[in-house]
């Protein structure tokens, strides 16, 4: 109940805040008001938190669970009424009597008893339902664990030993793959899916890593000199930095800002150094590209699943794929073609969604930029991203289009409800609640039947429209 | 761009620009949600937030575009300047590099933004003044030479963030008022009729 009360307090606080600001209005030319959008958002998310917390409680304690539904109801509609009705079971009868509106006749004793019986029945029913829900959740959990064990066995004992192009395209393997790779085999399968076409050796990695460290030292010493003496940068030193190697410096800004909630990439954290190494070595390996923001997400996901050297091989070869080359070289002509092509695809798959987004002013570049640069790892939680990447490694570029269409299908209700450009743009940049769930996401992706031929057609049509031959 | 629609008396678009890591996203979250997030994610492309403010009797919605700071992204981000009514160019007072870039950012906004767009120069991370690399006098001189207002902020301590945005909005209102002598009497210049769509909304745009 305290959780519910605190949610009421938050509502009250919000009111107070906007009121107090409202009073200040006349004092100056520009006076602030609390953003109605933001404060509403905060209140809603607080209620969601309350609901999820109480849901967790209901699993542990049967007694608490009867109030869970009330809180759920209350957080959506009338919190005050729910508090007075169900705070204390000993006074239930009295409270119900006291709830009689003024001026209405008193209930007879018979009526009163009947109401109390009905109420007790309701509470009992609610308890039973919660118990059933708890049991079914436990069963589901057991089922999931069993499924994971079976999957792992299948991969370790059958798929990996018999790995061949033909075998992995069999229906059975494809179906197992769709469910996501068991963590134990993920590294092995990803490595098999991204062959080392660039022939990166461990020695080569060592050399580039060494370069990166030395060049970063030069960079730092040059700039500290500049600050101390307030003179211009000694150019002869900076000339040792080739191409876009000067981007080495910006890597450190981004490491801790990659999956920040995990905290493992923070300075001093276990993955800070390896992630820095990967990105630094890549910058020196491809000074024509350098470090580009977004790369830290790709490298982070690889370093979480693979050894440092394997992660580097995978990163280098992955970034060599045409679509990622287009983005990471910031080839704006090809990028625009890609966005326009995707807009056309969206229009042919979901004309109403396309029309609504077009009306609000959201073209695909506003969401696809994030999604492609990070291969969906910025908007989703890591477990969702891992499953997406599992299937991306299976299907390649086509899966990017399929996933993007699947996400839009998944959030279509929001798309039709929200009318503000910013609200929609925010929705796409961070998937929350039920949208951050891999089951729900994959259910939607599975509904998208798309072929590379359709993608090519859309891209050709975009090319015609842009009037330039870029491929 | 100043847009007028039914719900709000005015909607203005502001852009936040400046080098990577200077604290643009945290200035935005402090201004729109009164939050500081030491774990904020790298901005890729552009992020958005809005806040509604009151000017006299008018309700104004500010739509803020928080752009990615990396130089490599400039080819993409300069497309976001179009239609902005004002810009905050941000640097980190503890990073001489980020201050050295201001000239380039200024050039970008003047080239790709609307002509005469009001700009405020912001020196952020005022809380780390013991690590200061950019003296106030240097920044003030630069601002003066380029006819910009200069303000130092700390998104962490919530110091001056409000004022930085207020400075900019006041400048916008002033330049807007010069064009339309009285805001209250301003009338829509164009009217977009979107009868082809079911979700119809009145909208007019004043450039």
From TrEMBL, chain A:
Pfam families: RabGAP-TBC (PF00566)
Top-level division of the source organism's lineage: Eukaryota
Region described as Disordered: 1-146
InterPro entries according to UniProt: Rab-GAP-TBC_dom, Rab-GAP_TBC_sf, Rab_GAP_TBC_domain
Protein name in UniProt: TBC1 domain family member 14 isoform X2
Species of the source: Oopsacas minuta
Biased composition range(s): Polar residues: 16-56, 84-94
Rab-GAP TBC domain span: 180-396
An example molecular function term from Gene Ontology annotations: GTPase activator activity
Biased composition, class Basic and acidic residues, residue ranges: 103-146
From TrEMBL, chain B:
InterPro entries per record: P-loop_NTPase, Rab_GTPases_membrane_traffic, Small_GTP-bd, Small_GTPase
Protein name: Ras-related protein Rab-25
Transmembrane segments: none
Protein family according to the UniProt entry: Belongs to the small GTPase superfamily. Rab family.
Lineage of the species this protein comes from: Eukaryota, Metazoa, Porifera, Hexactinellida, Hexasterophora
Source organism per UniProt: Oopsacas minuta
Protein topology in the membrane: Lipid-anchor
PROSITE patterns for the chain: RAB, RAS, RHO
Subcellular localization: Cell projection, Pseudopodium membrane; Endomembrane system
Function per UniProt: The small GTPases Rab are key regulators of intracellular membrane trafficking, from the formation of transport vesicles to their fusion with membranes. Rabs cycle between an inactive GDP-bound form and an active GTP-bound form that is able to recruit to membranes different set of downstream effectors directly responsible for vesicle formation, movement, tethering and fusion. RAB25 regulates epithelial cell differentiation, proliferation and survival, thereby playing key roles in tumorigenesis.
UniProt keyword Phosphoprotein present: no
Subunit note: Interacts (GTP-bound form) with RAB11FIP1, RAB11FIP2, RAB11FIP3 and RAB11FIP4. Interacts (via the hypervariable C-terminal region) with ITGB1 (via the cytoplasmic region); the interaction is GTP-dependent. Interacts with ITGAV. Associates with the integrin alpha-V/beta-1 heterodimer. Interacts with VPS33B.
GO cellular component: endomembrane system; pseudopodium membrane
Keywords: GTP-binding, Lipoprotein, Membrane, Nucleotide-binding, Prenylation
Primary subcellular site in the record, as a coarse category: membrane
Single GO MF descriptor: GTP binding
Pfam families attached to this UniProt entry: Ras
